[in-house]
Amino acid sequence: MDSQESIAGTLFLHFAMLSMMAIGGGVISLAPDMQRFVVDAHHWLSNENFVAAFTIAQVSPGPNFLFATLVGLQAAGWLGALAATVAIVIPPAILTVVVLRASTRRSGNRYGRMLKAALAPLSVGMILATAWSLARVADSSWGAAVLTAATVVILLTRKINPLWLIAAGALIGMTGWI
Amino acid sequence: MATDNSILPDADLPRPNVSLMALLGAFVRLGMATFGGGVQAWVHRDIVVKRRWLDEKEFLSGLTVAQVLPGANPVNIALYVGMRLRGGIGGAIAVLGMVIPAFCVILVLGYLYRTYGHFEIVHFVLAGMAAAAVGATLQMGIKVAGRLPRNVMAAVVAGGCFAVVGILRWPMVPVVVVAAPISIAWAFLLERKAGNVR
Lengths: 178, 198
Known about the structure:
The complex is a heterodimer. By secondary structure, chain A is mainly alpha-helical. In chain A, 78% of the residues lie in helices and 0% in strands. Chain A has a domain at 4-119. In chain A, helix 1 packs antiparallel against helix 2 (31-41) and helix 1 packs across helix 4. Chain A is globular and about 55 Å long. Chain A starts with a helix and ends with a helix. In chain B, 75% of the residues lie in helices and 0% in strands. Chain B has seven helices and no strands. Chain B has helices at 20-33, 39-50, 56-68, 73-116, 120-146, 152-167, 172-193. In chain B, helix 1 (20-33) packs across helix 4 and helix 2 (39-50) packs across helix 4 (73-116). Chains A and B meet through helix 1, helix 2, helix 3, helix 4 and helix 5 of A and helix 1, helix 3, helix 4, helix 5 and helix 6 of B.
């Protein structure tokens, strides 16, 4: 069994590299690779623990990318939580500071818009990959799959905060129906 | 050195006098208010509409840069607003304000999960919440997919990334390192064919 320090170190290096891959879709699009790394490759977390981290971060106040913090916490305690968070925040922040200092307003607008359009297909693919990797675990029963499908349909057809549907999911889950 | 057409103008240009404490307060509140995504809408409402620290155009040019660079969008937006108003120290304070309180809350929730996660009722409740949260993520993917241009390039890149990272579970770093330049080059060629760039 690895020590918590060495797990936190390994996690830090991998997440720091991964953080620079979060283009367009934000940090949630990193979920498939985090799951592959911490669950499949290293067995620090179970699949269920991983999906719980994602779910709790969705309903917690604050930016969603903090699900990485919960992954780190479960893998290597508070040191892991800190390592995961710093690794996700700092490398892209340094790049952002450099680019902001270097860009003029016009170049920022022009190249920014062009790059955003160019990277949009990539981010769509990654968000769908995230949904797929989580669904493989979360939708292990028919009830859960129906709940996921219903959530998609409701959110596509109505303007409603997803939090209400997650709250409804909690109530439905409580009945043991899922 | 920043010049007058820089995205981060010099200190001597006119801008609202925002104290570091006010900046910290604003981003602590924003950090705690942003439930489940949509951070830019919250920041816009608070920083542009309510406090008038930035005007619409300033906010949008920063937002474009924040969205296209890697990393968490909330962090990049906080960096831009903070640096724009108070330079490097302002950027650091805005990011810390946005992240630290939320980090503490999520640590508490994480410890609660570790302590009570083995109870059956917690397991049931989380299973229901997870099914809905996955639905919300899938809906977001479908929504942005609907806004993609209808061309071969978009379909190949989006479908390819989904297949290799989602279904085949390949490591993401090499996939992005290969797919991002292809996507950018392809989009550039399409633009040039359309005569938008020389």
